[in-house]
Amino acid sequence: MAAPAAAGSDGGPRGLLLDDLMPWSVRPLRTGRPWVTAPDAASLRARWDRLVRASGEERERLFAPTRARTQHTAVTALPGRSGATGRFARESGPCPEPVRVLHGPFDEQWLLPDHRLIDVARPELWRVADDHQLFLVEHGRVPQDPGPAVSVTTLLPDGHSPAGRPGRVRPLYRRPGGLEPNLAPGLLAVLRARYGDAVTAESVLAWILAAARPSPAGCVVALPADTARWSAGVALGRELLRLQLRGARGAERPRLPGGQRPYVRAAVPPDPALLSYDAGERVLHLGSGRISPVPAGAWEFRVSGVRVLELWFGRRTAVSGAAGLEAVRPRAWPQEWTSELLELITLLALLAGLRPRQEELAHALAAGPGPGAEELRAAGVLPVAEAARRPASVLDHQEEGPDGQFALL
């Protein structure tokens, strides 16, 4: 059972562990073979085609078997997916349609949604991934790192951490359809009594986005002493949420004010080898390509101590050492990557612009912390029941088992 409270790594207020506020969490996905994800869907289709056309030893080598998955492993279908469940050794059909996922912080990539190819797919996440779901993703803690402790996405996140310290994935809802918030039982009632009836599961998520801080014991979230501070923090969190949705579900896509929007000043070459930043000119160089203006806040934006733009670029240009199916990738820089980069620069710049408000909130919470573990313990919210830490039973339909058999529910 998680400890009830922990001190912030920056000497701030003692806060409630996120693990107690949102008790159900899932470990990151483990694909087992890197070739099942890619920054572009076309590469995944080409990899699939090459694999199913191969035979014998070549097919075995390209598949890259692990202890969890070989071509003969019997597995169920991914929840909500209609993929084949026959042994992959007999597979010769068309490529399943790649799905958009979040590969680490702020990096939208593609995944082959075939359970036969993924070592640990976390089916419990797939079961609750729908148009109502929001996933809170914890980032690996790095001492003295000023980056965000958490982020949020509508996409299925793989939970990958750039620092090699994977956090946890916490769905906002335990059941499809936006049902049963993943909050400690009784927490909403306590917060409504303190801050008003307008408190919802999504406003709690917004507060967490604004106030979460890393600590050696895990991510911590301090609560405010007064309603005004709560309302201000929720408003900030909703702005963070709006930006990170990136236009999903009818939200407005992030945009910088006129005159501050980045544009391509020189076309990105087919094979940009280096990424660099000119702070004086506010220019991002991709080989001979040039994008400007790029705010320093976007360039310096880090998660788990790693600069996000460098990580994003490196995943699309690292060809040395690539072998097998992972080496199947675009021969030239696709135009769509440039568009995605402009959007990412915009997002990071806007998030960096909200950072002072987050720091101001942190200082205010340090000066006047609100309810803590003792109050929640007195209200019966803590300790959290173990059942709240396990996934809910959402098997309201048949899921195809190995070789087309249906599981008994």
Q: How large a portion of the residues is in β-strands, by DSSP E?
A: 5-15%
Please give the alpha-carbon distance between the first and last residues: 29 Å
Mean pLDDT: 91
Number of domains: 2
What is the secondary structure topology, with strand pairs?
Layout: E1 5-7, E2 14-17, H1 18-21, E3 37-38, H2 41-53, H3 56-63, E4 99-102, E5 108-111, H4 123-128, E6 135-138, E7 150-153, E8 156-157, E9 169-171, E10 173-175, E11 179-181, H5 187-195, H6 201-211, E12 220-221, H7 227-245, E13 263-266, E14 275-278, E15 283-286, E16 289-292, H8 296-300, E17 302-303, E18 306-307, H9 308-317, H10 335-367, H11 373-378
Parallel strand pairs: 4-8
Antiparallel strand pairs: 1-2, 2-12, 3-5, 4-5, 6-7, 6-9, 10-11, 13-16, 14-15, 15-16, 17-18
Any overview of this molecule?
- Residues 1-13 have low confidence and may be disordered.
- 41% of the residues are buried.
- The chain has 409 residues and is of the alpha+beta class.
- The strands form six sheets. Strands 3-5-4-8 form a four-stranded mixed sheet, covered by helices on one side. It has a four-stranded antiparallel sheet with strand order 13-16-15-14, with no helix packed on it.
- The protein is globular and about 65 Å long.
- The protein has helices at 18-21, 41-53, 56-63, 123-128, 187-195, 201-211, 227-245, 296-300, 308-317, 335-367, 373-378, and strands at residues 5-7, 14-17, 37-38, 99-102, 108-111, 135-138, 150-153, 156-157, 169-171, 173-175, 179-181, 220-221, 263-266, 275-278, 283-286, 289-292, 302-303, 306-307.
